[in-house]
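Hello Y.,

Per our agreement to keep a running log of every chain we model this quarter, I'm adding this entry. I've kept the format consistent with earlier entries: sequence first, then predicted structure.
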Amino acid sequence: MRAVTGATAAAILELDQKTFDNLLLRLGDLALPPGRQGVERRIPVTLLEELLLTRDLHQALGIPTRDAFLVSRQLLGRQDPHRGGVSPEADFLGSLHAGAFVHIAADLQQLREHLNQRLASAVETVVRRPRGRPAKSVAPPLLGDA
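Predicted structure for the entry above:
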């Protein structure tokens, strides 16, 4: 399974790191299982599809993030969190009937093309932040200490 760092995922979603962390916090266990302190998160690329749709639904319709995430999973055909992705040849999938006259569908081909472009760009530009305590700087010896 392909995965990226949290910083790379934030760049792909066009969010700053803090907003991305808050997004994952709002989604809780729906998105990722709990991690361990001090271990960098690995975000599966398939989750990025769901998060892109979640962001679009939240911004366009104003629905809460958690609800937008559940709708995005249905649009991608991933109601079961343990089930894998959808077939890559599917252009439209998981359309929803949100009422008697409302029908929602997602253009998965365009979503995946956009995701792959952003992924290629983010992998080239995002630099991993060094973790841990900075190394001690060693001062050069003084001239009289020989």
